[in-house]
## 1
Amino acid sequence: LSLSRRSFLGGMTVALAGTRLPAATHELILAPQSIKAHLAGYDVSMLGFNGGLPGPEVRMRQGQTARITLDNRLEEGALVHWHGLRVPNRMDGVNVLTQDVVIPGDSYRYQFGVPDAGTYWYHSHYLSYDQVSRGLFGAFIVEEQNAPAVDHDIVVQFFDVLLDQSGQYDEAFNPAHFATEGRIGNTVTALVFNGTGKTVKRGDRLRLRLINPSIDRVYRVGLDGLIGKIVALDGMPLAHPRTLEPILLAPGQRCDVIGDATGPIRFDDSFGEQTLSLGEIAVSGSREPAKAPITALPANRMPAPKDPGQTAELVLQGGAGSASHNGTGTWALNDVSGLPRRPFLSAAQGTTARISIRNETGFPHVMHLHGHHFWELDAAGEAGPYRDSTYLDTGETRDILVVLDNPGSWMLHCHMLSHQADGMATWIRVG
Ligand code: C2O
Ligand code: CU
């Protein structure tokens, strides 16, 4: 197999010699580098994978194997984490826990299968509060073996960035950001990518894959101009698609919507006091809408939970004005700030664990577990959506149930990346 470096860069699928079947392997290079991005009318010096912000959309078929080379063209370290994908531990891209940081000029080969279909994403996991806020992220889509028929499959990433007076990335370091709601940008954009390249008509059926790669900003995404259903959260299909209403999308979270366009599709955010317009997808022309009902996506294979063999409590503490904790940061988990020497939880492979997460801080958080999805349990202990990141408002408690079937050391941290950087991180050891 000989491919030029150039042809790799597009993230193409490599056909196996002598077959016309879909290739079993998907090869590409991801090269983080300095770029100029066009944001809010400015040419902003940012970072990007393969020259773009967002990075290239990685799109694979369920069951394929990814072979992705990280080619570090930054003047600093780099690592890539495959958020939500249940990869082998050594492919997880986490500094200290799973691999060494890739130094400038070096490369690293990631290889893993993608057993779960859905909407995932990849991002830097080295100084991520900084590198992700500068643009080191992209969508990672795994198509179902039997994908539902739609006219357009569109990825929408809601990204915010803090620009200074001159329209450049704000380099000022403000410790207050870390200890409060995070580093919230003053410029918000919906980065829309329609892989079909076709214009959307009224009546077309769309699959929208919404991703929040913003480091700290929570959105409540309203959609206008679409009649449809919410069909997946954090990549995983909902057994019963939900009525489309404004979607809470915390950093790192995803949501899939399938629906029929009734007009231009407008996104807005009503999380804060004022409603912000986030962007739109234009429509032109019209057609008879499809009559087929919107049904549940084919389920991914989920492990079967048993009675919890282990239970644990995780208390979210700290933030501006709170007492200090062991460790160096402002935020803490169970009285420790920063990655503890010992795991928060250690379990044999296959253990079902129930973790009760309690937010005692004055701010919301979104807790993300690597290498696994978990069920959010409702107040009655019934299993809700199967997610990889769970949002907790101030004072809120949520129990999650997880089958720890993926051996290794896995991070569990707040995905408000300023909070992670300022101490809100721990880890789980499986096997
Ligand atoms: Cu999306 Cu530990 O990260
Ligand atoms: Cu947080």
## 2
Amino acid sequence: MAAPAPQPETRRWNRDDWVRGYTSLTEERDYWIDDIEGTLPPDLRGTLYRNGPGLLERGGQSVQHPFDGDGMVCVFDFTGDGRVRFRNRYVQTKGFVAESKAGRFLQRGVFGTQKPGGWLANAFDLQAKNIANTNVAYAPKKLLALWEGGKPYALDPQTLETLGEDDLGGALAGSANFAAHPRYDRRTGQMVNFGIQPGLSSTVTLYTLDADLEVTAQHRWEVPGFAFIHDFALTDDYAVFFQNPVTVNPLPYWFGFRGAAECLVFQASRPTKIHLLPRAGGRMRTYETDACFVFHHVNAHLADDILTVDSIAYETFPSLEPGTMYRQVEIEKIAASQLFRFTVNLATGETKRERLMERAVEFPSVHPKRVGQPHRWAFMAMADAPTGNAPLQGVLAYDTKTGTAQTYSFAPKGYVGEPVFVPKPGVAEDQVEENAGYLLQMVFDAPRATSSLAVFDAQNLANGPLARLHLRDIVPYGLHGQFVPA
Ligand code: 3ON
Ligand code: FE
């Protein structure tokens, strides 16, 4: 047996605690939170919607990876007078409804969850189960639950009742997918999102939507090669895509041994491609940088032919060993996610990349008024230790002006998800201070075995949360959310 990997002395987490935060929440709750620590700011009024895998097993069988868990939307209504109402509802996807009846998995998951019965029961079943578990997009008449391998599901924003799969008025005809990473134009508030049809050559479609989530424009490009693209960055005139250097070896997927995402092969000798797509349509321009893997972008802007993109990048595709159950993963051996700045000189084609920070971070965002503009502050979740890879346990605000960061860590007993930035309301356009606002972050509190929502003053992270709203259950680690001001 191999000797255990040496741990940095600063390690302040343990696997049992961390893994316990992946406990399914089978109940659907609706209550006023009665365990509030600290004081809620009165100008925090509105609704936080967040999505994530809620159910991580079926009929005694665990998912292979949490990204295969059925989508569950959680809602926090902040009244502004110190009260907060919590609700959670499952997205009643076709797969969820059918599997709830059957009491077992009926469809394969993209990240390796197989139907019971071994490979024979799975071979040549190439239908992905749309689990609507990754993000939300809000409009007054519908809340979309997003998952990039399929179409969005519409929910009633008040009752969270599932209205059904939504093809956006026919814009998503046929097998069109809709990604889980909308970006919002800082000038118009318009939503921009994309859809990918991966293949030997891949099609990227860019959609512009209005405040009712009606598609007002769409443009399509052919991208050579297989494209697995989770997120993009938005500038005033362009959509920026990073095409990770991955190929697919589909045989184990076809024959029922592995999930589709377990068949991605990272190509370390090939470049990562940076595609610049004009939002109004037209010719795509492509640049190259050394191989790396990107899920999430922080922000991008273009000035004087220099494109700057800040992203969270991994040295390689951060996959589990295929067939390894996620609870057994040795996270310290997986590539860490770090903050990078990429620059592209559009005139010469020269690209540069610079690592801004060593600490493992994920789930980045900036002030909505800075999207497509140079930003000073970027907000993200972080690992406790400043080096190495480890679970996310804190929140971090990175100051691009000084190259320093403000942090708060819930280690050793807390584990976190995405911090959602809420700009301070009622500030005039020209007075916006881009770190003036709140950060809302879910925390799994291991000793209490419940989750809470932490509310931070984004300008004062080090002092710890202003308030913590303790829930009655564990809400398994989620993916992304959106705050809708009242
Ligand atoms: O052939 C294609 C291959 C493929 C992988 C077909 C496809 C479009 C169906 C497809 C599907 C991709 C999907 C459904 C991807 C879903 C991704 C997802 C649910 C989440 C991604 C999250 C990313 C990150 C970086 C999360 C990090 C979380 C932590 C560090 C906390 O633990
Ligand atoms: Fe994401």
